[in-house]
Amino acid sequence: MKLALSADHRGVAATRLLADRLRSQGHEVEILGQLNGETCDYPDPAFAVGKSVSGGRAERGVLVCGSGIGMCIAANKVKGVRAALVHDELTAEMSRSHNDANVLCMSADLLGQRLIEKIVDIWLSTPFQGGRHERRVRKIAAIENGLDPSVAT
């Protein structure tokens, strides 16, 4: 799978290790931005990954910052992005199976590397269930386009 990854300064170490692991599993990984440890503002990497996913250059994106919250808020401002803040295996699975999340946001400060890797494994391997969830994802797209979701079918 083609993946876009990035982080702010608090997520650099976790993202570097994750990128190496994903490449060893056969994924095509593109690091967006500089993971040099210098202080950066989380909206910048969130925008870069969001644009890569929404533009079709990456199938999915992964973002890591201190809490994951700022990255998720910023990434969700990019049209076509459904970013999910995930803290455990269950939310990783649900964000994919029910919400068809295409960008995963995680906390470097709250999650250890092993849990980050487990979350990513589940998130990448969980398919979208479709069905009743498809209607809800279409309603999210309607909101994104400035429409009342109750009229979306």
What topology, given as strand order, has the largest sheet? 2-1-3-5-4
- Helix-strand category: alpha/beta
C-alpha geometry: globular
Number of strands: 5
Mean pLDDT over the residues:
96
Describe the oligomeric state of these chains in a short phrase: single chain
Distance between the termini: 30 Å
Q: What is the CATH topology classification name? A: Ribose 5-phosphate Isomerase B, Chain: A
How does CATH name the architecture? Answer: 3-Layer(aba) Sandwich
Give me the Rg, rounded.
Answer: 15 Å
How many domains make up the coordinates?
Answer: 1
Describe the main β-sheet briefly: 5 strands, parallel
Helix content: 40-55%
How many alpha or pi helices?
6
Unreliable stretches (pLDDT < 50, length at least 5) are none
The CATH H-level homologous superfamily: Sugar-phosphate isomerase, RpiB/LacA/LacB
Which percent range describes the beta-strand content? 15-25%
Give the helices and strands as they follow along the chain: EHEHEHEHEHH
> Which CATH class is shown?
Alpha Beta
Annotation keywords:
153 residues, alpha/beta, Ribose 5-phosphate Isomerase B, Chain: A, 5-stranded parallel beta sheet, 5 strands, 44% helix
Describe how the helices and strands are arranged.
Blueprint: E1 2-7, H1 12-24, E2 28-31, H2 43-54, E3 60-65, H3 69-75, E4 83-85, H4 89-97, E5 103-107, H5 113-125, H6 132-144
Parallel strand pairs: 1-2, 1-3, 3-5, 4-5
Helix pairs in contact: 2-3, 4-5
